[in-house]
């Protein structure tokens, strides 16, 4: 259970919804980590963005 | 927008973007002011509250008493706010483009002709894809809204907290579209008596609240049935808990079985959300009867 909670905390930290990383993370200095992570997220966004559609909840 | 000959029948009426969200904030402010639960604030503060662009279009639904202190004294920790805000926005974009929109290839099949031609085993896959799509789509929007607000040093309420990992329907609703759920509880369920009335009235209150939640999501009969579905599930969960209180130390099997049941029920409910009522009924007919 501890491992599952650690992974959840890590995902929340990498997703920007948690302020502090779980114990034992990060290995890299902050700026390097975030540079790599933001670059990765931007690449994924760029790869998939051609199929965009509107948000489901936008016209309520 | 068009006006036919009969001027009383206005088809295709124009509705402002986000009306259902900012209307809830108006109601919250009016009711809380009436009960003296929040200060009036200055007019420009009220305008900032209702016109706060990151949350205006699709939430999260804010509370004035929470928002006002943050507006008056926003965070000055720019490095942290921008780090968290940008990360949140980028995560939202990935969730939307790489997952939610990717699922559209499957959810597009949720129509009568495709379902009639398809093999039965694929139907739950399409519905599951819709469940994944709606979560990633709306939570992505919330991520972008929350991240954008964070760039101004303002923290707005969270909307999702791992809802699909919850082990009962009441827990699911406490973690799915959290700001709407809390609004429904505070401004519909509790004013009707909440759970402090006799049991039959509690069930009535739950059903009415969820029916209204369904109506809020859309004017179609399918949304009403979706609300009713969740209302019935919440009532059944309440009845079950009265009969069999939650164990203090549940086994892994117990937790897994509860999670699976909740997950299946929630995903079956999405059929009424994704399709109009006749198509949803046809989906269930094909799924269960072949």
SSE blueprint and pairings:
The complex is a heterodimer of chains A (60) and B (290).
Chain A: H1 2-15, H2 30-48
Chain B: H1 19-34, H2 43-50, H3 53-56, H4 64-72, H5 78-107, H6 112-117, H7 122-151, H8 169-175, H9 178-189, H10 199-217, H11 221-243, H12 252-274, H13 277-289
Helix pairs in contact in B: 2-4, 5-7, 7-12, 9-10, 10-11, 11-12
Features of this protein?
heterodimer, A: 60 residues, mainly alpha, 2 helices, B: 290 residues, 2 domains, 13 helices
What does this structure look like?
The complex is a heterodimer of chains A (60) and B (290). By secondary structure, chain A is mainly α. Chain A has one domain. Chain A is extended. Chain A has helices at residues 2-15, 30-48. Chain A is 55% helix and 0% strand. Chain B is mainly alpha-helical and 290 residues long. Chain B folds into two domains: 19-72, no CATH class; 89-289, no CATH class. In chain B, 69% of the residues lie in helices and 0% in strands. In chain B, helix 10 (199-217) packs antiparallel against helix 11. The mean pLDDT of chain B is 90. Classes of the chains: A mainly alpha (60), B mainly alpha (290). The interface between A and B is medium-sized, with 26 and 40 residues.
The two chains with the largest interface, and their residue counts, are:
A-B, 26 and 40 residues
Element order, helices and strands of chain A?
A: HH
Compute the gyration radius of chain A: what is it?
Answer: 15 Å
Distance between the termini of chain B: 42 Å
**Percentage of residues in helical conformation of chain A:** 55-70%
Shape of chain A: extended
Taking Cα atoms only, what radius of gyration of chain B do you get, to the nearest Å? 21 Å
The total count of strands of chain B amounts to: 0
Describe the global form of chain B: globular
Oligomer: heterodimer
Number of helices of chain A: 2
Low-confidence stretches of chain A: none
Q: Give the beta-strand count of chain A.
A: 0
Uncertain stretches of 5 or more adjacent residues of chain B: none
Succession of helices and strands of chain B: HHHHHHHHHHHHH
Strand content of chain A: under 5%
Instruction: Give the structural class of chain A.
Output: mainly alpha
The average pLDDT value of chain A, as a whole number, equals: 83
Structural class of chain B: mainly alpha
Number of helices of chain B: 13
